[in-house]
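Ticket #4471: structure output looks truncated?

Reporter: J.K.
Steps to reproduce: submitted the chain below (80 residues) through the standard prediction queue, then opened the result file.
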Amino acid sequence: MTTQTQKPQTEAVDEDDFSLNAAPMVFMVNHENVIEQAYAAHDMAFLGQLAESDEYKELFGDMGWDQAYDRYECMSGKCD
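Returned output as attached by the reporter:
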C-alpha cells in the first residue's frame, strides 16, 4: 500500500481583482526582507529567481513578478 502526501490546497489568484488572497500574501510577507534588500541592491536576478521558484509559480501561476509585487504593495498600503 502506498501513501501519498497531499499538498495543502491554495487559493488561486484572480487576475481581474487587484488584490492577493491569503496564500500569495503570506508568500510576499515571508520574503519581504529579502525582496526589499534585492530592490535596494538592484539585484533583479534574485527577484527573477524568486519568481521562477516552484512555490511562486504554484501560488501566482503565470502572473508576472511586477504585477504580483504591485498587488502586494497596494495591499500593504505602500502604493499611491
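Triage note (M.O.): checked the attachment and the full C-alpha cell line is present. The chain has four helices and no strands.
Status: closed, working as intended.
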